[in-house]
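This week, think about what follows.
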Amino acid sequence: MSDGTSDGDADERQAHTVRLELVDEPGELLKALHPIAENGGNLLSVFHERGSLTPRGRIPVEVDLECTARQFRTVVESLRDAGVNVIQAGTEHYGEEVTVLLSGPLVSTDLSDTLSQIEACTSASVVDFSMTDEPGVDDVASARLRLAATEGSTDAALDCVRDVADEKELHVVEPLVEGSA
């Protein structure tokens, strides 16, 4: 992830901005701020506009913090690990979205692990997930995943989904993209 610093500046504290989307539930802002404090970040400002919603129906939050580049990378990773939807971190911006369908033994192949592996891809973040209420024939279930990808990395995100699906013997239904028909 690029945060606009070189490795030579790794120990110098500087200002960083992270943009988040939070669910409108009690404790979500605190949950988002905790990884910043835990990893040495010093809060400079928090802009939390509760009356405004993003296109995904969430509350936009912009946090300015001061820390080293190394700490900032750790803060962003910790936010993602905590399930916080990171829209932009430093210069990294999730500007593209793609929706895929997965079908197969989602539950018996550890759904949580499947989502974690996809989230671990550096080019994408799972921003929405829904699954059929009950498994179909032979424990086959289907799920819809909406992924946010960094600019120009949708193909890499889809490669990651394909790799995880292959490992778990899941089927992937991908969107048609321009020029693929």
Q: What stands out?
A: The helical segments are 28-38, 69-81, 111-120, 154-167. The CA atoms of residues 23 and 58 lie 5 Å apart.
